[in-house]
């Protein structure tokens, strides 16, 4: 974060204005619209970064149920990385891959790319995370301010997700318990049984 | 009997004195069986009206979509699923193309059914239907009394195809459900949307009766308008020699061959409706001879036929039946692969599942080395009134056949199989035998048996 990057607002606006093509379904197997490894490769090559083939493979995905959301965020991050106000060099490969692969997987727990686009806090979090992975901080902020703001955004979201997942697990437990209880108890009338 | 915490007012919230009298008649009849359980409709007065409205919609609903063209309601349905159902929420956003949505199958539901129950479903109202499963995944299906009550709407839609409008109401028995198992859930109830006509779920197994002759006497005394069951139970009912004449038989749970259906129709003097019905989705289709297969019944259900890779197959080609939608709001299905196989075609105003086979297709090797599809075996055996059967080809190519039927000899079955497979084919035929659960009809241990 030693270097200053663009204003944070310019990046969050870019995320808010993400073109529909970057929000299409990632192609996994024979389903989906966008071939994510190709987008990653093209985006970074245009910015002077060559991605080794084995690193690209992880963006192909295997299971639509588990990979679709993280890859949708990878696509969104590619749209952000294509912003020429961000200066990229071949030395950024490690940080960029961490963003597209690991950070996208973590952010996927919070919701899909569309949610990031719609939610101001999530837009800011992705913008700040992207800058941080490139060793940059938002223009006009000190290193400490930039770090504090990113931590605050991430902590608040983690707390929200934790609470939501706790509530979801409690409900799932209640459903399972109700079904088991009713199994031993009573059902309701159907005119045929399968 | 399991101890119950519910009272009659929980089971039948709108029960009138006429309904109470009918329950008493069914429970205390001198020839009544030993009822093992208690259950009821559990519908409040408001819900009874709701079921009536939903029934009108189900009876009039048009199934106007074409194969491989999702209907107009699909977009909203998919959005609601992704918004409200934990498992589907993980998909992120709805893809532009419906066919880009992942498919699910019984193993997904069996892993944790709770993930498929929408956020806004009232847990306190949840009930379940247990299903033994044919693919090795026993399942508790989440449901609600409102869902269970809606089955009748689709039965009525099916019955209309046979010119039957149900008439039994107050003081009469609407339906008797029969099973023939060592253990079976049995009880009596009333159907409020039919002016409290009676419902009795019976087990024809002698264990449940004080006197085996009571079975026919009791069913004759109830004189139900409809009898529901499976081919094995109907065969048992046939042996009992009941004299009452239902207006229709509803057959579910296992394949019903044409000769057997015709035999039952002759024995009971009424149409026999072969329903394709799943615990996960309710009645999906009814066999209509003139349509050449099972005509779809649900106006809010979309059916796809997929190949083994999950790709849609052109109309008329055979593949796995995959369901989206349905009336069970506790378990909205999004591209649910049923494990059953058929082709889907439009036939005039109907959408028809043709060549329905409720098991994964298996190939069998004949003596000439040619592989034949299990559907050919179904066709070859269609001439025999088999209640239930299973065929296995072992790793050496030998055939083992077990069956349940009356009036069918092992020799006639062996002769048909040898004609199909070649003169030197080794065949062991055993039967009639008791099947204690849904059997996997076609299996093979021979490498290459999968299509």
Instruction: List the quaternary state of the chains.
Output: heterodimer
Strand adjacency order, main sheet of chain A:
1-2
Structural class of chain A: mainly alpha
Radius of gyration of chain B: 22 Å
Biggest chain pair contact, residues each?
A-B, 43 and 69 residues
Mean pLDDT of chain A: 91
What proportion of the residues of chain A is helical, as a percent range?
55-70%
Largest sheet of chain B: 13 strands, mixed
The whole-angstrom Rg of chain A is 21 Å
- Low-confidence runs of at least 5 consecutive residues of chain B: none
Give short descriptive properties of this protein:
heterodimer, A: about 190 residues, mainly alpha, 8 helices, 2 strands, about 0% strand, globular, B: about 450 residues, alpha/beta, 13-stranded mixed sheet, four-stranded mixed sheet, 12 helices, about 25% helix
Provide an overview of this structure.
- With 194 residues, chain A is mainly α.
- Helix content of chain A is 62%, strand content 2%.
- Chain A has a two-stranded parallel sheet with strand order 1-2.
- The model of chain A has no long low-confidence stretch (mean pLDDT 91).
- In chain B, β10 and β11 form a beta hairpin.
- Chain B has twelve helices and 21 strands.
- Chain B has 451 residues and is an alpha/beta fold.
- Helix content of chain B is 26%, strand content 26%.
- In chain B, the strands form four sheets. In chain B, strands 1, 4, 5, 6, 7, 8, 9, 10, 11, 12, 13, 14 and 15 form a 13-stranded mixed beta sheet that branches. Chain B has a four-stranded mixed beta sheet with strand order 20-19-18-21, with helices on one face.
- Chains A and B meet through α4 and α8 of A and β2, β3, α7, β4 and β9 of B.
Give a short synopsis of this structure:
The complex is a heterodimer of chains A (194) and B (451). By secondary structure, chain A is mainly alpha-helical.
